[in-house]
Design brief:
It is a single chain. The chain is built from 18 helices and eight strands. It is mostly helical. It folds into three domains: 132 residues, Fumarase/aspartase (N-terminal domain) (Fumarase C, Chain B, domain 1), CATH 1.10.275.10; 215 residues, Up-down Bundle (Fumarase C, Chain A, domain 2); 54 residues, Ribonucleotide Reductase Protein R1, domain 1, CATH 1.10.40. The strands form four sheets. It has a two-stranded antiparallel ribbon with strand order 1-2. Strands 3-4 form a two-stranded antiparallel sheet. The radius of gyration is 30 Å and the shape is elongated. The protein starts with a strand and ends in a 5-residue tail after the last helix.
Length: 460
């Protein structure tokens, strides 16, 4: 056991605990949700500290022995091995100060161990004087958040690309499956199932492009700006070199913001990113709902497609299978849409030179990213790739409907088709049957009108 003291008293810490007294205070003060900062944020903040230590060493402000130990400690923390030592709740006051203190203490104690010293021996390596040299929470925390978001956007772009490819594969597979189009959930004109998937693929391709471009919006960091963006208490050369060093550490395309005061106080780039995530969530919700509708029944509903059967769907109805993956996707989509509203409010509620709600924004935007990154592969692998079409049933629904009516207007005129539809109501025969019976069309002509090739002609 070891003891650490501050102006509020002292605490006892176990030998295995690498955090210090400031972390313990924050854990007690913010015992709210039990949710911690996600691993990607811990990694990003450790990398920020790493870059700061490297820069301070190169400029001669940090002793090379201490600096090397701090860099090694940051590297270890960034690996994820010590995530359990970051103990502060995600919901915290102080604009992220407690998380920064927690990271500083863990890095300091890891560095002390690297020098074969006891944790808590801050005379040798101090969490603030050494690990936090030339930094403020107000520049390292938002810079780490930007780095974390950039990492996650790259992951998200990859899974969106996989979804787009899967939808395009199904577009080709189902290009010859003729089915009913529907508007207002009512029968419309014929189309192909491939066209249905092509529309979804196109929407997702726009999301992929948005996510790719959104990285440009978030790559400018306020690192070096210290408390409010003026760089007070940091050397000028450090300010101009630290982001370059972070670029080397992360491998990301990042840059120092032109206006560090603006980048410190204004969070609108995160609102823009969140809006793009919301647009993706909207498309995912629409696709998941469409999948549920098209697979509904399967005997008492539309039943044009079959979703993979994954698990029992009822505790009372044997054989029932539910569209669980689309339903899960829809719920995630709703969460992301509503997270966007919260992020919008957070950004608007900042005051003067700082936004005090930055920890809530960090938690919320990283939650949206993580949910989407995990959900999309499940949708692809457990649903989209296993979809099959009930081709004959699709065509029968077309023949039994009145969808032929609109297609035949150029051939017979509006009045004649209206007259035939009136007869359909009386006789309860399908329009196709009536056309054959009256000798207006033969089987071959009807098949030609309903051929997949006809659907792709873009007009008559």
């Amino acid at each position: 056991m070891r003891k650490e003291k501050d102006e509020y008293g002292e605490v006892q810490l176990a030998d295995t605990e690498l955090f210090g007294i400031q972390s313990v205070r924050a854990r007690e003060n913010f015992a709210v949700s039990g949710e911690k900062m996600p691993p990607v944020f811990i990694k990003a903040l450790a990398e920020v500290k790493w870059a700061c230590a490297e820069t301070n060493m190169k400029l001669g402000f940090l002793d090379k022995g201490k600096g090397a130990a701090i860099v090694t400690a940051c590297e270890k923390l960034a690996s994820g091995e010590y995530d359990s030592q970051i103990i502060v709740d995600a919901f915290q006051g102080g604009a992220g100060t407690s998380t920064n203190m927690n990271i500083n203490e863990v890095v300091a104690n890891l560095a002390l161990l690297e020098l074969q010293e006891e944790p808590g021996n801050y005379e040798i390596i101090h969490p603030l004087r050494d690990v936090n040299m030339h930094q403020s929470t107000n520049d390292v925390y938002p810079s780490a958040l930007r780095v974390a978001v950039l990492y996650k956007l790259k992951e998200l772009e990859e899974v969106i690309g996989e979804m787009q490819s899967s939808l395009q594969e199904k577009e080709l597979e189902f290009r010859d499956v003729v089915k009913l189009g529907r508007t207002q959930l009512q029968d419309a004109v014929p189309m192909t199932l491939g066209m249905e998937f092509s529309a979804w693929a196109e929407a997702i391709s726009r999301d992929r492009w948005r996510i790719f471009k959104s990285r440009e919006r978030i790559k400018q960091l306020n690192l070096g700006g210290t408390a409010i963006g003026t760089g007070l208490a940091a050397p000028r050369e450090y300010i101009f070199r630290v982001v370059e060093q972070l670029r080397k550490v992360t491998g990301l395309s990042i840059a120092r913001a032109e206006n560090l005061v603006d980048a410190t106080q204004n969070l609108d780039p995160f609102v823009e990113i969140s809006g793009m995530l919301k647009a993706l969530a909207v498309n995912l919700f629409k696709i998941s709902q469409d999948l549920r509708i098209l697979s509904s029944g399967p005997y008492g509903g539309i039943g044009e497609i079959n979703l993979p059967a994954l698990q029992k769907g009822s505790s009372i109805m044997p054989g029932k299978v539910n569209p669980v993956i689309p339903e899960m996707t829809a719920q995630v989509s709703l969460q992301v849409m509503n997270n966007d509203n919260l992020i919008t409010q957070i950004a608007a509620l900042g005051n003067l030179e700082l936004n005090q709600f930055l920890p809530l924004l960090a938690h919320t935007i990283l939650q949206s990213l993580e949910l989407l990154i995990k959900t999309i592969p499940l949708l692809v692998h457990k649903c989209l790739r296993g979809i099959t079409a009930n081709s004959e049933h699709c065509l029968n629904l077309v023949k039994q409907s009145r969808s032929l009516a609109a297609v035949l207007i150029p051939r017979f005129g509006y009045e004649k088709i209206e007259e035939l539809l009136h007869e359909v109501d009386i006789t309860e025969k399908s329009l196709a049957e009536l056309l054959l019976e009256k000798g207006l069309l033969n089987e071959e002509q009807i098949s030609e009108i309903l051929s997949p090739q006809q659907m792709y002609k873009q007009g008559f």
